[in-house]
Amino acid sequence: MKKKNFTILSNGQARNFWLACLLLLGSITSALASYTVTCTSPQTMYTPGVNNTFTYSVAVTTNGTVEYVDNIKFAYPAGVNVVSATGPSPYNFCGGGQGNQSFVTNTIQWITPGHPSGCGAFSTGTFNFSITVAVPAGQTGPLVATFTSEGDGWPPPLTDPQVTNIPITYAMVIPFVPCALVCPANLTVTLDPGACAAILSYTVPTTGNCLIGGSVTGFQGAYAPSAINYYQYDAGIFTNPPTPFTNAYAITFNSPTNTTLQLKDADFGFSPGPNIFFFNGVEWTNNTGASQNVSFNWTYTTNDGPFFDRFEMLLGTNAQNFANTNFGNQEGLWTRITNINGATNQNGTVMVSVPANGRLALSAFTLDGGFGPCTVNISNFVVSSILPALPVLTSGLPSGSAFPIGTTQNCYSVTANNAAGAPVTTSCCFNITVNEFPSPSTTLACNDNVQVSVNDECEAFVSTSMILEGDVYGCYDDYLVSIQGFGSGQGGVTINSSAVGQTLTVTVFDPETGNSCWGTISVEDKLPPTIECRNITVLCGEALPTVPAPELIGYQNILYTGLNDLVETNSFTYNFDFSYLPTGTPVLDVDVRIKIDDHTWLPDLNVELTSPSGLTKSIFTIGGCVGQDWPINCVLDDAGQVITLCLQLNAGDNARLQPLVAGVSTPLLFNFNGLDASGIWKVKISDNAAGDDGHIRAVGVFINVNLPQLDPADNCGDVDLTYTDTESGDPCEGLLITRHWVATDQSGNTAACDQVITVLPLVLDSVDCPAAYVGHCGESTDPSNTGWPSVNGTPITDDNNVCNIFVGFWDHTLNDCGNGVKIVRTWTILDWCTQTTLECVQVIKLG
C-alpha cells in the first residue's frame, strides 16, 4: 500500500499576498511511498460586478518514488461562473504534466482520461493555472473558492485517498467612490407679516472618498516664519505673537522666498546678545487638524567639535514643548540629529511625522558656549499631509444667513483626490426662494406715543415696526419713516443724544400706495453712568484722591521685612495680595526681592514665583556656592546684572540681578508680562537638604503697571460727581477712609462705588530737619524765619503737628565776638504712634 501526503503550505506572510490553498489533512501510511500537493495564489481580493482573474501555482512532490495526481479542480460559489481559463492542457501521457480541461458553470478541472489506476496526468513538478470568473455585482463579503486534487485511484471506488474542499478565501475590494456634493432640494418659504428676510439653515454634505493631499516645499503655511509660535536666542525668549519673529544672527530664513533656514548656537565670543541660552531655535505647531510628514536636508559645521555643539530636534506637545524644555539639563528630551562622535562637517536628511496639534522644534544646542558656534543649514523642507476635502461656498449665502426676498442661488464646490490621486473639483447649486407676506394691508395704523430708551451709545434706531400697530403689513423696510428733526429713512431713522428728553413726531409712509400715518415718540435715557473705584494707599499728610479711579502708574510693591524663617529642609510660601488692582490689569514687568543669609550650600535652594493665573517659574537655582556662608541680597530682575561669582549674590537691598537657572543668568520673569496682575501672587522658597542653615530675612514682589485715570462716563453727556467719607481704624495702624462716590447723569440716573483709602502713619525717617541758617544781625531766630522740620515739604511746628509727628527744640547760644549770634538748636521729633524720638541739630549764625 502507498503512503500519500496531501498538504497545503503557506509562507505566512500576508503582506506578500500569498495564500495557502490546502491544509494538512492526514495520510495513509505505507512503507513504500508518499507524495505532497501544495497550492499558492498571489491574489487576496476580488471586485464585484466585473470579471476577476485568479492565478494558482500547484506543486507536486514525492519522496522519490513515482506518484501521480490525475485530477486538479477549482470550484467557486454559486453564481460565480467560470468565463475562461488557461492551464497545462490537453492530456498528453501518464505523468506528462497536462490534463484535459473542462468547466461547467462555477467549476473547472484538469483530468486524466479514463482515470486508469497507477497513472495520472500530473507527476512531480509545478503547474500554473489562470482562471477568469464573472463575479456578480451583488456579491458581498468573502468569496470562498475550493481546491481539490485527487490521487491516481480516481474515480470511486478509491484505491488512493483524495483531498477535497480546501478553502481559498478572497476579501472583497471596497471600490473607490469619487467625492460628490449633495446639495439640498430647492427651498421656498413665505415670510411672516413685516419680515424682510428669513434666517435659514441647510447642510451640504459630501459622499464618497473626500480627501485632498499634497506637499508644500519651503517654510510656508503652518511652517512659515510668521507661524512660529516660540523662538529663542541670546537676545531673549519670545512667543510669536506678541513678539513677531524677525531674522536674527542666530535664526535666519532667506527672505522673502523662505526656502532655507540657518541656525547658530550660542557662543560667548560670537553672540552679540547679553544672555547665553543652551538652545537657539524655533518651534511650530501643526494646527492643520491632520498628521503631517516633514522632511528636510541639513548640513552642519563646527569649530568647537560635534560633542559640544549639536543640531537637535524636539517632537513636542502642549505639555512638553520648547518653552519648558530649554535648559541644558533637559537636553535628553530632544532628539540629536548630528553625531556627537562624528566629524566637524556633517550632513543628512530627516523624515518625521508631526501629529495633529503636535509641535516641531529645530535648534542648535551648545554645551560650553565657547570656542566658536556651529552653523546648521536646513534646505528642501517639504511638508505633506492628507486632509479632509471640505465644501466651499462659491456663490450665495452660507447656512444660517438672513435670506432676502427673492431667489438666492447657492453654489458649492469641493476639490478632492480621485482614484489616481489627482485633484478633481465637483460642484452643485440649489435655490432658496423667499416670498413676501402675501396680501399686506394697505391700511396703516400708527401708535399714538412710543417710549424710546437710547442705547449705551445714546442712540436708537426707530424702526417701522416700533411705530405701526397690527401684524398685517409687508416688509417693514419698504416703508419710509420720518422723524421730526432727524430726517427720513427706509425702514427707520437713527436718533442721538439731542433727542433725549423730547417728544417728536414720527410719520410712516407707504410708497406703494401713498398712504401714511403718524404718532409721537418720547425719547429717554435710562442707562446709568459708568463708574469704577480703585483703592489706594497714601502717607498721612498727602493729598487724598479727588477722583474715584486715579491713575496707577509704576511699580506696585509689597515687601515683607524683619523675617527670621529657617530655610533648612523647609519650604515657605509667601502670599502677596494685589487684589486691589482692577481685574485685567496687565503686568508690564515683575521683579522679586529676596534676602537670605547664613546659608552654606546654595545648590539646595529653589525660589519659585507663581502668578494668580497659576503660571509658575523657578527663578533662582544655582549649581555652586558651597562650604561657607553665601548671603543672597538682591532684587531679581530680567534687566539686572549678569553675574558669574558667588560673592556677587550679596549685591545690596536695591541691587538688581538677573534670575539664575542652574547658575546661569537667565531672563525668565518676562513670561509673566501681559498676565493679569490682580490677585494673589506667591513666592515659594524651599531647601531640600539639612545641615546648611539659612534664614529668610526679606521677600517682596514688585509689579509694574500702567493704569491711566478712569473717569466716570455716561452714554449721553456729562456726569456730576459727589462723595461722602467714613473713617475707621487706628491712625497708628493705618486709618481707613471709605469714600462713597456717586455719579449722576443728566437724566438723573446714578451709579455708585466705594473707594478705600488707606492712610499710613508717618515714620521718623521721613522727617527732614531744617538746614543750617546764616543771616544778618538783628534777624529773628524764630523757626518761622530759620526753618521748621518738615515731612514731604509740609512744615511741622510746635503748634501744628503733622499727623503722628510732633516737634520741639531748645537752643544753646555760643559766645561770639562783636555783635554776632551763634545758636546750636537741638530739635526733638516725636513719633506719637511708636513713642520714639529723633534728634537733629541745626546751626544758626547771624552776623
UniProtKB/TrEMBL annotation:
InterPro entries, per the entry: Galactose-bd-like_sf, P_dom
Protein name: P/Homo B domain-containing protein
Residue ranges the record marks as coiled coil: none
Domain of life: Bacteria
BP GO terms, sorted: proteolysis
Record bears the keyword Signal: yes
Signal peptide feature range: 1-33
Stretches assigned to the P/Homo B domain: 546-709
A single MF term (Gene Ontology): serine-type endopeptidase activity
Keyword set, alphabetical order: Hydrolase, Protease, Signal
The organism's taxonomic lineage, starting at the top: Bacteria, Pseudomonadati, Bacteroidota, Saprospiria, Saprospirales
